[in-house]
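I hope you will forgive my troubling you with a question about protein structure. I set the record out below, with my sincere thanks for your time.
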Amino acid sequence: MKRNLLTALAIFAAAAALTAFMAGNAAAQQAFTPVSPTLPAGTPANVDSVKVSQLTLDALGSNWSLFKLADLTSDDNGYAIPKPELAEKAIKSAVAGSVKSYIALPIAGEIFTAYDTDTMTFAYNVTGDKLFCDSLSGLKAVKIFADGSGALFKTATKPEDFKDEYVTILKDGAVYTGKINPSEPYTICAFIKATGRFNMINPAAPAAGPQVLDPMAVVETGSSSSGGGCQVGFGALVLLAMAFAPAVMRKARRR
């Protein structure tokens, strides 16, 4: 009886840690709605406004992405996202200072025509509280790479800056640089070039599928109040719980 109880507790600890991460992230993700954004005058001609599709693991398959399927999981909505330990490793490598929480968006992609020259939008309508910033200058969006490294998107304060590896906030079809109201709607819009380093498509992938893939995280730093998301450390909690489970099970078997 005691052995069975210890085993059950160990398994429960690992499952509870992962469940807590998934629930917090999925609830925040639902606030992000993919859109084809209205881009202002002055946007470079090679930027395509497209509505990206969030992908499931089945849709992603084993050969579209540079990510290993073992490093991905499904959120509560069924979409593919990097596992918390990979996401947190990337965020911590990209963001200086303390990181309070983050929202990891599902892997998204889309097909578009001028593969060699075009840059595409990864845009989502969202309320201000999920942007974790007081204004555009404080926005921190992190690109998550397949090797667990990360990089910050640069901030585009004018349409001429709408290019690869940049991100902006739009409101009413214009770049918004004013104060972010937590309850008002905005559009966060990232830009990724098909042939750039931020594209996580596998070069060997078939030509008949998505041509640009991106997992991105919106990050909250410092001591500002959180609008929801995953507290940093959930990845470590999952790993600790999973590491603890076999030890408890071995101890239980010896008794």
